[in-house]
Amino acid sequence: MRRIQQVKLADWAIRALVVVTFFAFFAAPSRLFPLVLLCFAAMALWAMLYPEGVLGWGKTAHPANDVNDRSIWWLPRLMGAFVLLFVIVLALTFSGRW
User: Fold this and answer.
1) CA dihedral over 66, 63, 8, 26, signed as positive or negative
2) Cβ contacts of residue 10 below 8 Å, gap of 6+?
3) What does the alpha-carbon distance between residue 8 and residue 21 come to, in Å, rounded to a whole number?
4) The predicted structure's pLDDT at residue 1
5) Alpha-carbon separation of residue 95 from 33, 73, 88, 90 (angstroms)
6) Can you tell me the distance from the alpha carbon of 41 to that of 87, in angstroms, rounded to the nearest whole number?
7) Which of 7, 19, 1 has its CA nearest to residue 54?
8) All residues at 6 or more sequence positions from 47 whose CB lies less than 8 Å from its CB, including other chains
9) Is the dihedral of CA 59, 64, 66, 70 positive or negative?
10) How far apart, in whole angstroms, are the C-alpha atoms of residue 69 and residue 30?
11) Rounded to an integer, what distance in angstroms lies between the CA atom of residue 7 and that of residue 51?
12) pLDDT of 30
């Protein structure tokens, strides 16, 4: 599978996970925290693995950005790493309280 197809597939998977999290808020709000952590972890991994997908979302606001410019791919990867670290800390902190 080509990289652009992988990015599109991962983008749709993340969107589906966000929609599931949204509707889970209404169906089971007491069990929502683990699903929210899963959603954030998936988005962080997506940002680290496919930085051009995150830059594609940002291109909507800033059309001058080049999604294929590999010199700026470090920024989405750094943001994804920080979000993943935050999710891991939250999961370890609240692991006994679910």
Assistant:
1) positive
2) 46, 49, 50, 53
3) 20
4) 64
5) 11, 33, 10, 8
6) 6
7) 7
8) 53, 54, 76, 77, 79, 80, 83
9) negative
10) 43
11) 9
12) 73
pLDDT by residue, tens only, the chain of 98 residues: 677 787 778 778 888 888 888 887 788 777 778 888 888 898 898 889 888 878 888 888 888 888 888 898 999 999 999 999 999 999 999 887 65
Single-letter amino acid code for the residue at 33? F
Please give the Cα distance from 92 to 89 (Å, whole number).
Answer: 5
Place of tokens 């991962």: 10
Residue in the block written with tokens 């089971």: 28
Model confidence, pTM: 0.76
